[in-house]
Amino acid sequence: MVTEARKGVEDLLYLAMDRRVRLAVTGLNQSGKTVFITSLIHQLLMGARLGGLPFFQVVAEGRFQGAKTVLQPSMHIPTFRYDQFLESLTATPPQWPKATDGISEIRLAIRFRPKGLLQSRLKATNTIFLDIIDYPGEWLLDLPLLGQSFQEWSKEVVTLCRTEPRHTLAQPWLAYLGALNPRHSADEGVLRHASRLFTDFLLACKREPIGLNYLQPGRFLIPGDLKDAPLLTFCPMLSPDPSLEPGSLAQVMADRFESYKELVVRRFYHQHFSHFDRQIVLVDLLKGLNRGPNHFADMSRSLKSILKNFDYGRSSILSRLLRPKIDRLLFVATKSDHVAANQHNNLERLLKRIVTDPVNEASFYGVAVETMAIASIVSTETVVKEHEGRRLSFVRGRPKGRNEEVLLFPGEIPEKIPKPEEWHKERFNFLEFEPVIARNDSDDRLPHSRLDLVLDFLLGDKVT
Question: Is residue 220 domain-shared with residue 234, that is, in the same domain?
Answer without folding.
Answer: yes
